[in-house]
Amino acid sequence: MLRTTVSRCKATSTAIARRFNSTTSDGLLKTPFYDLHVELGGNMVGFAGYAMPVLYKGQSHIESHNWTREKAGLFDVSHMLQHKFSGPGTTEFLESITPSDLKSLKPFSSTLSVLLNNQGGIVDDTIISKHGEDDFYVVTNAGCRDKDLKFFADELEKFGKGNVSRTTITGGLLALQGPEAAATLQKLTTDNLSNIKFGESQYISLLGGKYHAARGGYTGEDGFEVSIPDEAVALDFFKKLLDIEAVKPIGLAARDSLRLEAGMCLYGHELNENITPVEAGLTWVIGKSRRTPETATFNGADAILAQIADKSLVKRVRKGIVVKGPAAREQMKVYSADGKELVGEVTSGSFSPTTKQNIGMAYVPRDFKIGSDIKIDVRGKLRDAKIAKMPFVTPNYFRG
């Protein structure tokens, strides 16, 4: 959730630096794996206030990308903000700031969701995992850290019910992604990972402890995100995974192209506070049971329900694009097929190592269909492009 420009949200570092007790000479925060990244030849860049590896020595971007699609890529995602919400009233509170049906979510199941402002705009995207009644594990974006923490505090004060507590989980968070991810992780645990399906989680036995493993990720591949609060154990886990032949450490460059091929949104690009879930193509995150005036108790519900009921209110939507010539990048302008009318803007773009074409996403008028011809101003020249179906690659999720 990825390039150096991943987010327009600004994160400050004082409290986080105290927690990790470590920053670089230029003030960037370090994850628990920083020294190991450097030892492995990581090209460290500033990303959401952290020093993160964009590539590793001896690997090109395309090689890193393809390795993840074919074997198992290991990503440090410890910069993401992990939360624990619990106490009476927690479900009601989370349903006041997200459109998800959390009451019906089964224990140890997860859902993609969005935090909403009062206008129905997206404050951040998030993964919510239900552990039990009024007990949730929530992951939000690193770049929106300070904004999200203030949002939660303000919304809790406004909610004023029950006894809802929010705590931050620190330590290591690793994403193991790719077709060999499950077989690889299985070597380090006695728990049967085939019992965990896509969108589910479990505390599994690892290195003498029990740690949260969620099946899913940000690449379109099968995989797990494993949270280990003990930094020493997390570092040991990272090293043990690297000892397995199928695993290579992968940086931010491939993470971005992988998520783009999978048609996944990136906050600050496809999502922001002026875009609703309907416009972003995320209507499906709005629980069907929460689409009536009586059940739509979430922020911005009137605006969002109006867009669902009347499509003419939706002037722009997120669509996939395929471009001839150089890749289109963020903020490049989209024009009609004849090049005369400005119709939209690119939000993300990259070469796709898997499909071997230049792909991206853009906001364009709702009536633009898959296959429609468009033109994109790429470095001052109008390039031929088409509206394309997403995802660009077939997902490889494990559904049992």
Automatic annotation (TrEMBL):
Keywords: Aminotransferase, Mitochondrion, Transferase, Transit peptide. Pfam families: GCV_T, GCV_T_C. It comes from the Eukaryota. Belongs to the GcvT family. The glycine cleavage system catalyzes the degradation of glycine. The glycine cleavage system is composed of four proteins: P, T, L and H. This is Aminomethyltransferase. It comes from Geotrichum candidum (Oospora lactis). The lineage of its organism: Eukaryota, Fungi, Dikarya, Ascomycota, Saccharomycotina.
